[in-house]
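# step 3/5: fold
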Amino acid sequence: MTSVFSDFARWCWRLVPANPILVRVVYAGGKRTKHFWARVGYLGGLFVVALMGVWFAQAESAGSLSDLAKGATVVFRNVALVQLLAVLLLAPIFAAAAITQERDSQTYDILLATPLTNAQIVFGTLLSRLFFVFALLAAGLPFFTMMMVYGGVTFREIAYATGLAASSAMVAGALAVAISVIRVGTRRTIFSFYVLIGLYLMAVYAVSAFFIVPEAVPAPGKDTRLSWLAAFHPLLALGSVLNQTPPPRFADVAHYGFPWRYFAAYPAASYIVMTSGFAVALCLACVSFVRAQVKAGESKWLGRLMGSGPLDATDDRRRNPRRVWDNAVAWREAMTRASGRGRAWQRLGVIALGLLAAFVLLYLYATGLPHDVTQAALRAIIGIELGLSLLVATNSAATGLTREKETGTLEVLLVTPLVSRDILWGKVRGFYSSAVLMVSVPVAGILLFLAYDLASGRMWSKNGPIVNPEALLTLPLVVLSALAFASTLGLYYSVNCTRTTQAVAWSVAVLLGVCGVGGCLWTFMIDASALLSALSFPFTPITAAMLTIQPAGILTSDSGAPLSPSQLGHYRLVLFVSSLAACGVYWAVAVALYKNMIREWDMTIRKQMR
C-alpha cells in the first residue's frame, strides 16, 4: 500500500510541479524583460484606475474615516472588476495557441516523440500558458492589501476576487486548450473561443434577472437582487462578493437542498469550485486527443455522417468550379477561411441568438415591460453584440499573416505576381466582408423596435420610441467604420509581429484601450456635461451604440433635470454630427495604418525572414 501511495505522489509531482513544459516556462519566461514590463504595465493600469477612483471619491467626501472606507470600497470594486475583465481577455490569448503553435512550427511531432505522457503535455501546456496570467494576479495582491488600510475592504473580499479571476483563467485556458487539441488551426481556435465565451456571458447575464433568489434582499439604495445564475457567471459572482447583490443566509435557503442552497448562499465559492473542477475534468478528457493523429483535411465521424467526407477521383471531376473574386487573397480569406464550415455555423449561431434575444425583448415590451427597462436591456444586448463583433474581427485579422508565417505559406504567397498592395488589401477586404454580416444583428434589432413603435403608435407617445429613427443610419455607419479600424489594426500587428499570441495581444490591448477611454468617459462625464457627452461618446463604438439608441434616458441638463424636447432635439443633432465625424476619424486611422503597412512591407518582411 505504501508503494502505491508513493507511486501516486510521484506521478502527481511529475504531472504539475516537475512538469518539464511548465518548468521550462517558469525558468525562462519569468525572467524575460518583456514579461517584467508587462507586469509593470498591468500594475500601472490598476494604479491608474485606483487613482481615478480615489480622486473622484475624495471630491465627494468630507474627509472622515467612514468616507475613506466607502471610497476604498468603491475603488476596490472598480479595480476588481477591471482585473476580472482583463483575465477573461488575457487567458484565451495566451492559451488559444498553446498546442496549435507547436503544430504550426512543426515541433509538435518532436513533442510527441518525447517520454512525456499525454497528461503531462496537456497540463503542462495549460499551466505554462496561464503562468503569465497567474503571475499578474500574484503581482496585484500587494496592491489589493494596501486598500485594507483605509477600511471597507476585507481579506475575504480580496481572496474571493482573486479566486474568481484565477478560476476564470483556468476554465478559459482549459477551454482554449481543448479546442486547440480537438480542432487544428490557431485562427479557428481563437474565433471559436471568443464566440463561445461571448455567447455564454451574454446569454447568462441577459436571463439572470428572470431567476432571482426569493430570499435575497437588495443592497442598501439599490433594487438589484441576487440571481440563481450568479454561481455560473464570474461578473455576477463578483457582484455578490462586493455586496452589490448580497447573498441570503444559508439557513434561509437550506430548504432548497443540494446543490441549490450552496449556489444561493455561497455563489462565489460555488463558481470557483465548479470552474476549477470543470477545468480539470476537461483537461483529463483532452488527454485522449493528444496522440489521436487526427490531421486537418481528413474525414471525421460527423463529416462522414453528414456526407462531407473527402472526395474521390470521380467526385473531384464532377465538382462545380468556384468563382474567385478579382482579388484572390480576399476571396480566400472571406470564403475559405473566415467562412469555413465550422465558422459559418458559429456565425449563424451568433446571428440566431442575437435575433432571438431581440424578438424576446420585443415580446416583453409589447406585453408590458417598462419603457426604461426595455431601453436598458436593448442597450446591453447591442453593446455585447458589438463588442463581440469587434473582438472577433480583431482576432481574425491579427492572425491573418502570423499564421502564414508560422505555417511557412507566406513564402509561397510572396513568389506569386501579387504585390504588397494586393496582399494587404485582400486581407483587409476578406476580414471586413466576413465581419459585416455580424453587424446586421444589432441593425435588425433596431429595425424591429422602430417598426413596432411605428405600427403601434408608440412612436408619438409621451415616453417616445425605444430607438430614435436616426440610429438606423448613424449606428451602422459608426460600427462599420469601427470594424474597418479593428480589421486594419489587427492586420497591422499581424504584419509587424512574428507570433500569433503577440499580434492578438497587442491588437486587443489597443482596441480595449480605445473602448476603455469611452468607458471612462461614460462613467465620469455622463453627469458632468450633456453637450460634452454628446460630442465625445460617438468616437467609441460601444458608447456610441448606448447613446445613439435613445439619449433621453441618459443625458440630463446641467441642473440634473431631464432634458426638454427642444434640448433633446439639439443634442440629437449634435450626436448625429459627432457620429459622422467619428466615422471619418475611424476611416482616416484605418487608411493611415493601411498605407503604413504598404510602405513598410518590404523592410518588415525582410527582417522577419532572416
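# step 4/5: annotate
The CA atoms of residues 374 and 583 lie 28 Å apart.
# step 5/5: archive (pending)
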